[in-house]
Amino acid sequence: MRDRFQKYYxxxxxxxxLMLCYLTFFSVRETEFVLVTQFGRPVRTITxxxxxxxxxxxxxxxxxxxxxxxxxxxxxxxxxxxxNIVIENYVVWKIQDPNRFVQAVGDAIAAEMRLHDIIWSGxxxxxxxxxxxxxxxxxxxxxxxxxxxxxxxxxxxxxALEQYGINVVDVRIKRLNLPEQNKQSVYARMRxxxxxxxxxxxxxxxxxxxSIRADADRQKEEILSVAYKQAETIKGQGDAESTQIxxxxxxxxxxxxxxxRTLESYKKVLDDKTTAILSSDxxxxxxxxxxxxxxx
Amino acid sequence: xxxxxxxLETSYLDSRLAPLQRTPRITPTRVFLAAASVWLLSGxxxxxxxxxxxxxxxxxxxxxxxxxxxxxALPWPLESVTxxxxxxxxxxxxxxxAADNILGRTxxxxxxxxxxxxxxxxxRVVVQYSVGLPADYLFQAQNxxxxxxxxxxxxxxxxxxxxxxxxxxxxxxxxxxxxxxAAAQRLLNDYRAGILIxxxxxxxxxxxxEAADAFRDVASARADTARIVNDAGxxxxxxxxxxxxxxxxxxxxxxxxxxxxxNQSMGDASRFDQIASEYGKAAQVTxxxxxxETMEQVLPRxxxxxVDKNGNLDLTIIRRGDPTTTK
Lengths: 296, 327
What we know:
A: 3 domains; B: alpha+beta; Tetrahydropterin Synthase, Chain A
């Protein structure tokens, strides 16, 4: 009998050895934590990846140590200045202490419920001490979202780690919105704002256009009047110069000028509508009347 | 059974198996060696040009980034190799879904953002990202894509909440994209997500339909303003060159007048000078001559009534329309 089974002994020993290896050695992946338990009692936590050893009677529980994202449903909060705001945030968390996690929480869904409570209360407390303008506002120095969230993250992390073995890596506001019931009045305000801006644009355009036109008109008048001034000055110069030339020329022989100019005037003044009544005694007709004696 | 028959049988078998004698005999050692070499050879693997790989030994990362080429890793179950297409851009939509837009509507809550001046706008942002560090990408986060989406959305929402609606819709769109990309990348680096955001593109940012017409009116007001100002500019551009032309004309005319005046007077003066110098030589005769010449020119044109020095003048002879009469 013994002989018949003897040849199976090496195989059985090999099998047993393999089994022992299987129970003793185990590999831990980068994505995991392992909690080694002995008859259900946690003995140690393995946080490093690689090939690990345990007693065959111990067992290993694997936990995903990767970052997880939790998106709580958007909820409405009240700020210090009694304004409602809808906030949707996301929480990045991971298991930090598998021992505590398995004892206090168990699985991811339960963990998210607990995180929701911690973060909701933290956020509503934080928002209760901030005005809406420090969350949503164009004055950047007044906006304190970052410090608010950093504080919230730190507080939530401390609480979650202590109670649940969870590391809250980050809490961020993913979306801000206004409550549905306020939306209609928001839209009305937006429209009113736009109308005001449109009116302002048009008025400003009008202002600009009027000033451009007025400026153009002014420039035109300026150009023309300056030109008039210069033109009249030039003409005056011409007149003065010509007067000077005439004066200089004529003052050499004033009586001859007078004679010449008078004769010149006759040619212009006396035309075919003129009737001249000439005395027979006149210089011109003296000869006619008196003969040669008149010429003397 | 006797040994004789056995020998006979083996010799028979030997003769039958003779042609097979050239192939090696199958022994357990050989089988084991063959299996072992096949097992060892199965560790050869290829990383394609667009890929990178991560090697782990019993789950522990021993090579976080293996570049394209032929490589060797200890076979299963010792080492394992994960290959990733690192260059491949992955696309993610934040805000309204692209698919919804084809139907002409986006679910309002998904796409609505609140601006700093408490306006609501709809935005859709497309994020493109790729794997930065394969080991981190594989092992740090459960769902890297969700992490990217959340980080981008958070940074975008924070920045939109600090700008007024006009800035978000128009002037600061580019800076919003850049800042969001940089900040989301910093956030993902903090998470060690092993992700590289390559672009963030605001595909659409529009006012809500409830106020869209008012926004359009602002745009048309802006266009109106530009038009009015342009018209005024056109008026000015028409007016001023004309005025300049007119001014130039006036100046030229004045200059012409001056030249004419001066030249005329110089001509007159020179003429006078010459006549005067001749006149000085024979004043009496020249005076008479000039007088008479003038009379010759003047008198033929005019009507003349010659009366005697002492005679009475019968004024009836001067009647309108009468031919020139000489008494």
